[in-house]
Amino acid sequence: MSLSPHQPVLYKEIIHALQPKRGGQYVDCTLGAGGHARGILEACAPDGLLLGLDVDPQALALARETLAPYERRIRLVQASYITLSDQLAAAGWDAADGILLDLGASSMQFDSPSRGFSFLQEGPLDMRFGPHATQTAADLVNTWDERELADILFHYGEERDSRKIARAIVANRPLHTTRELVAVIEKVSPRRGDRIHPATRTFQALRIAVNEELASVEKVLPQAVTALRSGGRCAVISFHSLEDRIVKDYFREQSKDLVNPPYEKIYEVERNAILRLVTKKPITPSDEETRINPRARSAKLRVVEKL
Q1: Considering the entire predicted model, what is its pTM?
Q2: How high is the pLDDT of residue 184?
């Protein structure tokens, strides 16, 4: 299969990892435009089912068009993946054969200036994945104090100049647009030969904070593992080290027996392993995929199977 600039990240790898089968039940927790979902539905034809979730009403509308040929086999819901257990219950599913999480913002969101995700385009400082988010990026940069901003930029963006940038933001408030924020960042943190733009880490940090992304990943992983039936698989694509670390640590923890410390060389197993690591190391995009879609370069795919 040749690659297209519009093809979802790690498309072939996802289909191979989930191994969709006819009659199976699958959940795409981050539906986006429906690209991964379409591949899953094709692979589990003629009677496999798919539950698709997304908080973004624009993405959901586009996915309905993309998946129109499979209308009888899909259930699409505007909802956050942190409500996974509730959505499965509402669908009448007692378990799933495969669950996909494609974390972070989508290309569609980055390409829409009105969403405020991209520092390369003029737009409002919004950055919300969906209307459920209670605050925008503008709310954060204009109301949080300097220390709070610096902490967010350092911990969520791994920004070396976090204190300098936070101080400049506070000094130049109010800031309402992406261009205004970029100008402040470029003035105090010019490019030092890095490959990435000096605003990259700040925009990442603000997006994560606005959408509570890390907390959401921590909430959904136990739900996903519980929802899988024996032999079912969960595949997670992450795009930065903080997300990937949460996924890696949780999957490794659940793939090991929990034992008490030995007493007289006797071990007592408190809990047997729940998962098998399908991927010991993350799968990353091919050179061809990153050439066609540079945004894919930081993607990491981890896959587990329910025992």
Answers
A1: 0.92
A2: 97
